[in-house]
Structure prediction request, 675 residues.
Amino acid sequence: MKNPTPYLYSPKYRPDIDGLRAVAVLSVVAFHAFPEWMKGGFIGVDVFFVISGFLISTIIFENLDRGTFKFSDFYERRIRRIFPALLIVLLVSYGFGWFALLADEYKQLGKHISAGAGFVSNFILWSEAGYFDNSAGTKPLLHLWSLGIEEQFYIIWPFVLWLAWKKKFNLLTLTILVAILSFYFNLKGISSDPVATFYSPQTRFWELLSGSVLAWFFLYKKDAFAVIKLKIDDWLSSVIYREFVDADGRTLSNIISIIGSLLLIYAFWRINKDVSFPGKLATIPVLGALLIILAGPKAWINHTILSSRVAIWFGLISFPLYLWHWPLLSFIRIIESEAPSRGLRVAAIVLSVALAWLTYILIERPIRLNKSGKVGVSILVILMAFVGLVGHGANVGDGYDYRGSIRGLVNNRSELIRTPATDQACFDYVELKTPLFNYCRYKNLNSNETVAVIGDSHAHVAYPGISEFFESRGESTVLLANSSCPPFMRSPTGNSEAEMEACNDKIEQLLGIIEKKKDIKKIFVFTRGPTYTTGTEPLTGEKNIIGNVIPLGRFVNSAQLSINRLAAKDKQVFYVSENPELDFHPASCLTRPFRGVVKNCFVLKDSVYERQADYRQAFSLLKNVTFIDSLPVFCPLDRCLTFDENGALLYADADHLSVAGSRFQVRRLLLPYLY
Prediction:
C-alpha cells in the first residue's frame, strides 16, 4: 500500500453518490407503492448494497493504511448513522400497532421489531417464508431484511480486513476471493433454495464486496491506467466529435456513466418479482451502479442529473425515507385488508417523504453531528436494546389481546387463524420423529378403525371438522398432508428441481404409511386442484405461485395412480373437489380498528364454475374413488357463500377454509359419506 498520508476518516464527498442513493430509494418506493408500473424497482436495494460496500470499504482501507483504524470509532459512526432513524420508526410502528393491529398481527410485529433492533430481520423473514406465510404486504417491517444484511456486513467485514491487514495479506486479493465465493453461493442457491438465497448474507455479500473492490482501485490504482484511459478517451472523442477535443478523460467517463445508467434502466424494466433473484440477474444493477460510481462526479449524468439539488435532497433523506415508506404502505394494507387505493398509496408516499425529511433534520443529522462521544452512543445502544425487549414482549405476550383498542373487534377473527400443523401423537402413530410431510395430526380414541384425511394444505384445514365429527362417534382420525404437494404420484410440485424431488419423497413416504396402516379403511383426499393445473389464483392473478404448472391430463393420471395404489390395499377413497376460491381476502369482511365499514363479500358462482369446469369434469371420471362435488353446497345461488347460516366466516384466507368452514363442509357436504 502507499505511504501514510494525513488522517481522513470519510472519503471525499461526492454529490453524485447521494444522487445515486436517490435513484435507489425512489425506485424501491415506487415498486412498493406502484408495482404494476415499476416492476423492477426492488433492485434499488442492490444499488444500495454497492454504494455501502464502496463507501464503507473506502473508510476501512484508508484508515488501515494510515494506522488509524479503530473498531470503536467505526461502530460509533455506524450507530450514529443508523440507530436514530431506526429507533423512531420502530417505536412509532409499535405505538401505532397497539391501536391498529389485532392480536396475531401485533404478535408478529413484536417479533419483527425485536429482529429489527437486533439486525437479524433477514433470518427471521427467511424462517417465516413458506406457503402458509402471511402476505409480505402485511409485514410492516419486512424491508428491514436489507438493513440486516448490511449490518452483518459491517460487523464481519471490518474484522476480516483488520485481521488480514495485521497478517500482511493482500486486501484486494482477499476481497475478490470472498466476493467470488459469495457469488458462487448465490448462483448455486438460486436454483436449490431461492428464499434462502434472497435473505442469506453469504449470497448477498458479493454485491457489497463489488463496491469494496472498486473502492480499492479508487484509492490505490486511480492513476495506474492514466495513459491507457487518455488514449481510449482520445479515440472515443475522434469517433464522436467532428472537431478535435482535448483528451481529458471526460468522454470516457460519460460513456461509462451512460452504460451504467442504461444497465439500471434495463434492470428496472426487465427484472420483476417473478424471476429468480438475485442469481445472475443481480449482476445487471450491480454493474450499473459500479459503472456510475466509476465514471466519477464530472461525468455529465453524474454532474447534471445525479448532482442536482433535487437528487441530492432525496439522497440525503434516503435512509429515513426507506425506513418510513414501507410501514405506512403496509399498515394501510392491513387496515384495508386488501391492496389500498391509488390515492391512499400516494398519500402514504407523500407522508413518508415528509416524515423522512423531519427525521433527517430533527433527529438524524443533529445526533450525527453531536459531539457527546461515547455517552450518546451508549444511550442509543441502550434504547435499541430496550426497543428490542419491548418488541419481544409483544411477541411472547401473544399480541396483548386484552388491549382496549381491539375489544369487541375480534368477532370471527379466530377463524383467520389456522390450527396447529403437527402433534406428537401423530409422530408416534406414524413411528417417525421427523416425517417428511408438513401436516401430521392424530386423534386417538382407541377405535378399531382410523379415518385418514390426506392431501395438501386444504386437507389440513378440512381436518378439524372431520376430526370433531368422528370424535363424537368415538372413532380415531389422522391427518397426513403437505403444503403445495398433493399426494399424487409422478406429479411432484415445486419452484425448483430440488423442491420437486423433495415433494416426490414426501408423497412416497405418505402413501407408504397409509398402505402399511391396516386400521385405515376410509380416506378423504383434498387438494387445491385448479391452482396446480392453471398456475394462477383468483386473489392475485399471479402465475406459477406454487411452482411448476401440471397439465390437467397428467395431474388426473397421477391422481388415478395414487388412488389405484390405495384401493389395492382395500382402502375406500373419497376425493373432495376444491371449494370456491375468493378474489379477496376474507379479513376485509370483518370490522377492525380504523375501519368501521366492511366489504360486501361474495364471489360469483359463474366465475367459480368456469374456473373449475375442466378440473371437475376430469376428476369426476376417476375410477376406484367416490367423487364429492363441493360447489353445489358452497354456491347454492348465484353467489358463493362466505359466511355460514350462523354468520361464521367460512374462510381463513382466500382459499383455505376456517375451522367454521370445515364444520360447515362436514354438516352440509360430507355427512352422508362419513357414516
